Amino acid sequence: MKDQESFKPYIPAEKITAEMTATSVIMGIILSVVFGAANAYLGLRVGMTVSASIPAAVISMGVIRVLLKKNSILESNMVQTIGSAGESLAAGAIFTMPALFLWAKEGLCDKPSILEITLIALCGGILGVLFMVPLRNALIVKEHATLLYPEGTACADVLLAGEEGGANASTVFSGMGLAAIFKFIVDGLKMIPSDIAMAFSSFKGALGMEVYPALLGVGYIVGPKTASYMFAGSLVGWMVIIPLICLFGANISLYPAAAGTTIADLYAAGGADAIWSNYVKYIGAGAIATGGIISLIKSLPLIVSTFRDAMKSMKGGSASGTSRTDKDMPMPFILGGILLIILIIWLAPAIPVSPLGALLIVIFGFFFSTVSARMVGMIGSSNNPVSGMTIATLLIATMVLKATGNVGIEGMIGSMAIASVICICAAIAADTSQDLKTGYLLGATPIKQQIGELIAFCKQCKPDVLCMVDNCYGEFTGTHEPKADVFAGSLIKNPGGGLAPTGGYIAGRAECVDKIANRLTSPGIGAEVGSYAGSYQPFYQGLFMAPHTVAQAIKTACLAARVFEILGMTTTPAADEPRADIIQAIQMRTPERLVAFCQGIQMASPIDSMALPEPWDMPGYNDKVIMAAGAFVQGSSIELSADGPIRPPYAVYFQGGLTWNHAKLGILMSLQNMLDAGLIEL
């Protein structure tokens, strides 16, 4: 634990650099599609996939640093985060979904549609990302010294080498060059066989190996201890279990071999490979499930503490961390997303299960996501036994479906759909964990990586899906704006600079903006008349003033946070933390303080300062709400304002301030109002 507390990432938490930019998102999506297609082909051809994280890291470093001349390691990290999502989707899909096409070819069922495949992939992939959000603190942070995450560590090393240059960079590229030459000799010139195998007919055993630099590199990263475990497992399977099966069961006909076919017949026809594919791989699947249960039990204290911290933050308590490098997706979003996926799984015809079945899918998905994330932390993504976990899932799913009366082809389709969702979920969780490890080492912002994973995954499943960002309150607060197909906001907030009298804006891809604009104006005259009948001068003047006005609002929020932190109250974000918007949340802890604060803000307002705001039952809210705003433009929250629901922890949301002096006056009058009422002591 001491090592974890003293760990410092390459980019400190207090430093903000470009991360999720248009360049990183677009390049990542392109690489995601390319690597996804390549791994789908490789997996269907030879039955295995390889991690795309390291190639994506190398390409991103080359393009961003060399071609674009940009010095942004976190931007390169975002490219590899998004770019590797396609590989994990392919790894999860190729072991299950082809069965549906084979059954359709045999006339047992209809061929699955693109919509059905997309729905299954989306359910599994989104679950995988969402599960890794609360697991990040348990597996990536608290087990930093235990779980190495080979590909994640290698990606960080590659990006760091490119950032630092010199001998580190030359070592990385020398290794890449030697590996490329060796691979060309093996697969191109075929001077050396890529697979070396030896059978021992005397006792029915076999040994073999693949001659690939990638596997040598993974072995080097995981170290001799973990590599020796894998080697010992291979020896037990091929040199002990297979000979024992042949010795004691030679004359036995045992499922899944064809009826009447003995184990001796299987060995005579296919050698040790036939025994492995019919029996040993199922033993391995059971071993994976058993090892996963043991691993999960060992991790339960960390997982439980992580969830406890997350739920505590939902109830208004302190979260596990508030710095930039500790920011995850909010827990309400995670739980809401999981509940939505349960609903979709239940209602989707492509996944024929009951509500209980949908819940079981999510439970088993979380189990295998945890197992998969821990597994790749020890042995790497390229060695992650996704197919073994899929077999274990199929065995469990078929038993459950048969027990509930779902038999025949309907039961077969149901079990395969369930296995597909869980398999993709586990594969995506493994990939996300590697990316989060890279980000942890480099100092990336976790929530941005998690959003990037979701964007990439949705685009990989359905390239024509549109990603939209509501950017209200966030404009001009950072070094770059969020990038998506479309993003929108209000002109009477940040970009209006306090001068725009009304309106909103949309931005993004030209074809998307055109379609939206045609629906926001009168048909036939929108292009000629425009969006506003009055003068556009205040809009342009407000946009000109917006960066300065937003800076005043951020300065105000920092002052408010610091003042109330001194008074012992919890603020989000803290005074010295990076900000993504102008809103400052302060937990007043009593309804009287919340009301007094808002009344003080109203007293300092240039409009309606004599008004006395009181909590009331506002439509659309479950609790009474108090609002304070004396603005020149009604609803303009770039002007000084505050509001909050009357419920624990009685948080007030404070924002805006056209000028620093006026905003400071508002804070002082709120403090004075609370002091006069005996609610605080200075």
Would you kindly provide a brief summary of this structure?
The protein has about 675 residues and is an alpha+beta fold. It has helices at about 1-5, 20-45, 55-65, 75-85, 85-95, 100-105, 115-140, 150-165, 165-190, 215-250, 265-315, 330-345, 355-380, 385-405, 410-440, 445-460, 510-520, 525-530, 535-565, 590-605, 660-675, and strands spanning about 195-200, 205-210, 470, 485-490, 505-510, 570, 585, 625-630, 640-645, 650-655.
In words, what does this structure look like?
The protein has 682 residues and is α+β, with helices and mostly antiparallel strands. It is built from 21 helices and 10 strands. It has helices at 2-6, 22-46, 53-67, 73-83, 85-93, 98-105, 114-141, 150-164, 166-188, 213-248, 263-314, 331-347, 355-379, 386-403, 408-442, 446-461, 510-520, 526-529, 537-566, 591-603, 660-676; strands at residues 195-200, 205-210, 468-470, 486-490, 504-508, 571-572, 584-587, 625-629, 641-645, 651-655. It has a 5-stranded antiparallel β-sheet with strand order 6-7-10-9-8, with helices on one face. Strand 9 and strand 10 (651-655) form a beta hairpin. The chain is elongated and about 100 Å long. It starts with a helix and ends in a 6-residue tail after the last helix.
